[in-house]
Every structure is written in C-alpha cells, then in structure tokens.
Design goal:
The complex is a heterodimer of chains A (126) and B (432).
Chain A lengths: L6 E7 L8 E7 L2 E5 L4 H12 L2 E2 L2 E7 L5 E6 L3 E2 L3 H9 L2 E3 L7 E3 L9 E3 L7
Chain B lengths: L1 E10 L3 H12 L4 E4 L15 E3 L8 E2 H14 L4 E2 L3 E5 L4 E6 L3 E12 L3 E3 L2 H4 L9 E3 H11 L6 E5 L3 H12 L3 E7 L8 H8 L6 E3 L1 E7 L6 E6 L12 E4 L2 E4 L3 E3 L2 H6 L22 E3 L10 H20 L11 E6 L5 E3 L2 E3 L6 E7 L4 E10 L4 E10 L5 E6 L11 E8 L1 H7 L1
Parallel strand pairs in B: 1-2, 1-8, 2-5, 8-19, 10-17, 11-12, 11-17, 12-13, 20-27
Antiparallel strand pairs in B: 3-4, 6-7, 7-8, 9-18, 14-15, 15-16, 20-22, 21-23, 23-26, 24-25, 24-27
Chain lengths: 126, 432
Amino acid sequence: MSESSASVVKVIRCIVCPTGCQIQAISKGSDIVFEGYTCKRGLEYAEQEYYEPKRILTTTIRVENGFLPLLPVRTDKPILKEKLDEALSEIAKTVVSAPIVMGDILIENILGLESNVIASRNLTQK
Amino acid sequence: MKKYKADVVVIGAGAGGLAAALEVKKAKLDVLIVERAKELGGITLQCIHNGFGLKEFEEELTGPEYIQRFINQVIDLKIPYLLDSMVIEITKEKKVYAVNNNEGLIEVEAKAVVLAMGCRERTRGAINIPGFRPAGIFTAGQAQRFVNIEGYLPGSTYVILGSGDIGMIMARRLTWEGCKVKAVVEILPYVSGLLRNQVQCLEDYDIPLITNYTVTKIHGKERIKGVTISKVDRNFDRIIGSDKFIECDTLLLSVGLIPENELTLQAGAELSDNGGPIIDENLETTIEGIFACGNVLQVHDLVDMVTNEAKRAGLNAVEYINGRYGKELKKKDIIKCIPGENVNYIKPDIINKRDLSEEIIFTFRVRYPDRRVQIQFKDENNNVIYKKKKIYVIPSEMIELNLNLEETKIDPTCKSITVEVIPRPEVLIEEE
C-alpha cells in the first residue's frame, strides 16, 4: 500500500487534559495509525475511543417505600458506549425497595456486559 | 427560644460544611452543623454523574457516593446537626439564629463560625431575556433536582442557554431520559464548562453547540413555545438579521453561579468583586472568627477542591479558638492581593504579614482563554517577585498556586501584590 491511500477515518478530541488535542485515526492500508496526540496518555485514550469506547453509566432507578422516589445508580465498570441505551431501558424497567446502602448491587451483570448496577447512596425508608 | 452552644457552628451541610465540621470534631472541639434541607449532603446529592473524588480519594465516584463518605463519617463521629433549619442571622459576636418547624427560633452561641452556604444559580432576571413569563423556564440545577431527585421531567424538547458544566451534563441526562435537546447556546466564542463535558455530553450525542449566540426572545404565553437566538458581536450586542427560531417547550439556563452571601453581608463582613467574602490566607473573613469555604467563597470546578478548602477552614477555626480567641487584637498589618491583567479575581484578598513565612494557597481564574502564558506576581513598585509558565489557561479551570512569599524575597514593607497572566515575553519576541 502506498502512502497516498491514507485517509482519516475518525477524529477524536482528547479529554485527558485541557489542551484538547485533535487526534486523527488514519487508515493506512489495513492498519490504523493515530496522529495529533502530544502525550502517551493521549494515544492510549485515542486507541480506547477508537476500538472500544466505553462509559460509566450514571442514572436513577425507581424506589418503592423510600425517603425519596428515586435512587441514583451507576455501573460499577464502564460499559460499551453502544449499549448505553439498552442498559438505560433495562434500568427503567426495574423498581427497587428501600432501605438501600451505597454499593448495594441492584442489577447483576446488566445485559451480560460484566458490569453491575450499584447504588450511589444510602436511602432510608419513608 | 431553644439555645445551643458549640465551639464552632458550621452553616451548611454540603461538601464544604461536612469537611469543615469533621476537622473541628477531629480536633476534639464541639461543632454543630445547621442545614436548611431535609438531609445532609447539599447539591452534590443531585450531581449523580461521575467524575468526583479523583483528587480526594484517587478514584472516580458519582456525587452522591462522594458525599455519602462524608455523611457516614459525620454520623460515625456523632457530630450533631440540625436539618430543615434555615439560618436567618449571624452576628459579629458569633451568635447564629435559625428557624425550623419543630423548635421555632433557635440561637446557637459559638466561638467561631464557618460559612459553607454554597452558591446559587443566575436566573433569567439576572441576564434580562425579553418575552412573557410562560411556564417551562428553569435553571439547569433546578431541572437537575427535578430529574435526579424528585422524579419529574421539566419538559420534552429543550434549548439550553449557557455551556456551563451543569447545562452540558443536563443535556446528556435529558437525552438519556428520552428528551430532545435541540441546542446548547453560548454567548461566548468558547465553551464555559470543561472540555470533558463538551465531548462526553454534547458531541457524543450530536447535540449542537452554538457559540457567539444568545437567546433574545422567549415565545409563548402560557407555556414556552420556542426561543429566538441571535448572533452577537464582540460587545455581546445582537447582530441584526442573525435571528433564528428554535421550537422547544423548555428553556434551561446554565448561565453562572453566584456565591450566596446574604448572611455574610448581614453579619457585617465585606465582599469582594467575585461575590464571595474578602478573606485572608486563613480563610478568615473581615470579621474575626468567621471563616468561609467552598462555593460561598468562590465557585469551584471540582468538589474535591471544596473539600480541601473546607478542611483548611475547619482547621483554621480550631487554631483560632485555641490561639487568638478572646485575646486583644493587634492591628492588622496586611498586603492586598489585586487581580491584574487577565485575572478575574484572586483569593486570598489580603495576607497578614505575620504569616509571610508560611505557605499560602492562592486560587484565581483568568478572564479569557490563552496559550503559552506567564503567571506573575508583582509588588506595587513593579518588582516581579514570582513567575511561572503555563501552557494553557481557561476561565473554567481555577488555577491554584502554593507559595511561600518569604522565599520569593518579597519586600516586607510592600502594601500590595498584583497577579497577572500575560503572554510569555519570548512569545512576543517570536511574533515581532
């Protein structure tokens, strides 16, 4: 493959530090190379974002009999970005009961993504 | 009237108040927390997103998780607190008056006070948007409380004015709840909040960010039906012919935070231009024995920084009680700190010369973004006493510097220092 076949397939804005480098994922033949990063952490971030972007999901879950009607929750590990919507729907279908202690597992291994949905705070009963 | 006594009374049970109270308790003094909400925790409870705790705990937590750790400590150490209790007056003599439904009027007699009341949001009134007063206009934090704690959605299609962090985080939150966010509109040429939020809350969901624009009209009489946005020039004046209509049923305002200092003012403490009280290097206000920390002093980027500042306020209150309390005051020999070029404000506002041999924590913000700058401290005779290079500065990132001024060979007779963020001299030469 010649150099001329290189094309930018994705532009990733680095969030590692406030400099905010524009990192380009460039397709060169069968390879992807990254350009525009200015530190090692930036390259790692770009690789992760290109190949397998993941996010911690933070939302709320409905509570029965709680001091508040909602409980804030999060996934205990980052989950695939493309699965966020599906995970949100799953959490929306769930209702939990107070009392709850921070860290309680409310949904185990959500969607088989090897991440649990856990409570972000304590919640006493009404 | 119900009466309480404590060595230190802390006003507010948010991140600042809890951290300050814990330090006082650990120093074996009596502390009482007075909080107006129905539970401990403050605004951090509604910030359900992650990104908290990287400095304080070296792990990434959500707001509720971060604050729960402090609430748990307060309960473990049996620190007394009053909930649902609104402080209505603080006196110079360190008497605090509050009201609640159970006890009526309450008096707390203390030796020192820590102010930790936090900040509030700027509203439509504060930025003057013309139009009727239809339903459907909220501040971003208010909407955050509805969505994350009370379980209501304020509307279905949104325009968010202001690209502060809460606005951007709410854009993602509302998208996740099935709402449509049409645009985030920012009057400045750049985003006000953190880059991380711009990328992960807006760009990830293709929410348009429209800079150099502002809302110039609100449509609808009963319920908001849409907004007109207009491009602005350098002076923020509307450019004729640039109007665009965006249909929406809700407008969120994320247009800045203001330290909440009515009680501070009423107590007789002086405020500085940033809206927070004037403080010295010990976080002590112009009233002896009254300290301030957290967002009531200056709006912070990160709760971790609030915690840090609040710990200092708690420790300084302890030091005050164990040292200077009840003793005759010497007249203060001070140095004023003045914000200079591209510095919006600086804390502390004043430095007591008695503390010049100690490390002083300076915090400040720039007015506008810049690259390859030099931060410099000058005395009133233009002697540069300290300088430091920085690659990038932006108003949304507070700058913190720990400095021992004695080591900088400051002239001990100087009366003021000016802090500036200027282009590096070598950059000027390169461009010539």
